[in-house]
Specification:
single chain; DNA polymerase, domain 1; 3 domains; three-stranded antiparallel beta sheet; two-stranded antiparallel sheet; 11% strand
């Protein structure tokens, strides 16, 4: 079978408009007269669709993200086609679509981040600090929550990421986690590192953060006031009349001695503690 015998077409169906008036985008593969198609879970305003080029003709961020996703699917399809040709395997439109969207064939976002964190955890004391891994853990928990709420499933592939999800993830960190701008930047840097690993390995061919970096990674100037050793000692020696206030004091002192932020300490769990080679926590 010749490689040019495969044809890839992206088109919309005006008869299946969504509630917001947009048309769903479909992918059709034709090989030696046989064809099969699938909806790619993307939609576009009818007036922005270019039938001839099979992409959006809009210049806005959403249109650019859609076109990047379509291009990524095309690249992946021809990679799969080439791999099957080299193995002299059976090539049909259905087989191509199954391999393109099969979870066994793809790398998942939440799963990949969990594996990365587990690998980095073994490097605590060498390349990473416990506070850094704690921040990655917190970012992972938030990512897992937002993926489930946004996509209505436990995990997604890197190709399913889009700008709308990034916006939702950002709002979750700002409103639910109540992160400041600088702490938000640290969390998004954790997520960006995982995206970088995906791109380096060829699992992601577009940048879901496009157009958002200036906002997400903007650092605000702060003027922190540091406690003197004498002031810290006075807090340590202070005994409050209620157990609650003594607990708050211990919480505050723990933040002082570890350098962890309030939000990081508030989400610490027993699983985040570990023992060193001497058996000390």
């Amino acid at each position: 079978m010749k490689q040019d015998s495969m044809k890839v077409l992206f088109f919309i169906r005006k008869s299946r408009l969504k509630k917001n008036g947009e048309a769903p985008v479909f992918l059709r593969i034709t090989i030696n007269g046989q064809q099969d198609e699938i909806r790619i879970q993307r939609s576009v305003p009818i007036h922005l669709w270019n039938n001839l080029k099979g992409c959006s003709k809009g210049k806005d961020r959403v249109s650019l993200e859609l076109n990047s996703y379509i291009e990524a699917l095309k690249v992946r399809l021809y990679q799969i086609h080439k791999e099957l040709l080299c193995r002299d395997a059976l090539i049909t439109p259905r087989n191509m679509l199954v391999k393109l969207f099969s979870k066994e064939e793809r790398h998942l976002v939440v799963e990949t981040m969990k594996k990365c964190i587990d690998d980095w955890r073994s490097l605590i004391g060498q390349e990473y600090q416990p506070s850094t891994i704690s921040r990655y853990d917190n970012c992972y928990e938030s990512l897992k929550t937002v993926v489930k709420e946004f996509y209505k499933k436990e995990d997604i592939t890197f190709y399913e990421l889009n700008g709308e999800f990034i916006d939702t993830f950002e709002m979750h960190l700002r409103t639910e986690r109540k992160l400041s701008q600088n702490t938000l930047t640290k969390y998004m840097s954790c997520f960006r590192k995982v995206l970088g690993i995906a791109r380096d390995n060829g699992w992601l061919n577009f940048d879901p953060l496009v157009g958002k970096r200036k906002r997400l990674f903007k650092k605000e100037e702060t003027c922190p006031t540091f406690l003197t050793l004498d002031e810290l000692q006075r807090i340590m020696e202070k005994e409050f009349s209620t157990a609650r206030l003594n607990h708050v004091k211990d919480f505050f002192l723990f933040c002082c001695f570890t350098g962890l932020s309030y939000i990081d300490v508030s989400t610490l769990r027993p699983i985040h503690l570990y023992r060193d080679n001497n058996g000390k926590l």
